[in-house]
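Anyone able to model this chain together with adenosine-5'-triphosphate?
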Amino acid sequence: MPEHKNSSVVSAPGKVLLAGGYIVLDRDYSGLVFGLSARINVVSHPIQPTQGVHLTEIVVESPQFDDDSWVYGYTPVEGHGGVKVTQLDPGTKPFKPNHFVETTLNYVLSYIVSLPAKQTLSSIHPAKFTILADNDYYSTTTTTSPSTPQRRFRHLGQTISKANKTGLGSSAALVTSLTGCLLSHYLPRSLFDLSTPSGRRTLHNLSQAAHCAAQGKIGSGFDVASAVYGSCVYRRFSPSLLSALPPPGTRGFGRAVVETVNSPDWDQEISKEETDLAEGLKIRMVDVTGGTATVSMVKLVNAWREGNKAEADGLFAELEGEVKVLAGALKVGDEQAIKRAMGEVRRLMKRMGVESGAEIEPDSQTKMLDELERLEGVVGSVVPGAGGYDAAALVIRDDEGTVGRVERFLGEYSQREGVKARLLDVLGEVEGARLESWDGGRWQEL
Ligand SMILES: Nc1ncnc2c1ncn2[C@@H]1O[C@H](COP(=O)(O)OP(=O)(O)OP(=O)(O)O)[C@@H](O)[C@H]1O
Ligand SMILES: C[C@@](O)(CCOP(=O)(O)O)CC(=O)O
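re: yes, here you go
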């Protein structure tokens, strides 16, 4: 990967919703989310004509996967429609779309060319964007011998659709880092600067719009919020902000994206002052084999809430109270208070699951978390996000003894219970999206 003066590298972290699953979908309640040290990085390179690439092409590649590159042509859409990209058939490989990448290109390029500063289509020159995801986003089935040094960005030996995700929020981190990289690459600093509050606001609003469009639903957006801002107590934006956008490729789309993204009506609340992790503690993630169908679980919780308003609202309010308490306790490192608040979060999430029929903290998870919490140095545990069978989040003391005990326990538990549970390397992290420096080696490992 050659170094180039006009390259930008933008990274965004994964997420863990420690407390506030389901309630954070409703603007009346907030959730506590931490960023994760597993990042998705996007590196841009202008394409040189000598490479023989057609002049209106944008290439996005994700070289850790097979069939890993997507080539797009781009054309202006009349009537303030912005830009529409069309995936070009590479001819040599199977034609595979990447809906998240394509939607992000449509939104971000349309935003850029429709800005009132009269950016024209000519500001979009051919370029290549390389996606590099930290290893913890995916579980691998291939084993390397202990003597083989692990690459920073491992090759997965399969296509993205077949890769086993660990649930760290790859699509939100990808959309956010790609959006940040496109904006940094094509716009002058006077129009986009990721290090300023207004730059982060643009990145947040545009990434939320693109991510919602790509996933075909308007979720709470906590994953994109933490990809941009890192750890925070998050209150969602009003979904109506995104409901009137026309589809990409139609008249008025580009103008509508600019109006929406730059609108003063965005009402999300990102409270960073309330969140930090005291020295001596770490947030760690456990990956457990087994899937979770978040969409159907949300439907079950909503149906229960509709039919049991008073009880559900009481539970939601109690849970939100614990969000605030847990945030404060993590910040000052009060182990007793963390233990108590995480215990309450577990109790309330378990009850929400039992009442609604959604398997939020299934009995197998209850067993594993109870046993984990008995280990010395484990302060508390929860099923993060929507819950289910596939993950656990731990707050532990930051010492090798505790990590060793947790790893040994998970190995023994996996054998005993016939599951695969392992401690991921990833750590809870406070910082959000950032411009990475080009340090002349770090991005050339693939
Ligand atoms: N490294 C990557 N390179 C290219 N595209 C990626 C990459 N990682 C994720 N994506 C895109 O994001 C999609 C996965 O999004 P999806 O919403 O299914 O999972 P997710 O956000 O990782 O889920 P979770 O919140 O459970 O972690 C992939 O199909 C692909 O389009
Ligand atoms: C259930 C929900 O509140 C959290 C889902 O979190 P996760 O994808 O399981 O980390 C949905 C949402 O907030 O969009």
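The radius of gyration is 22 Å.
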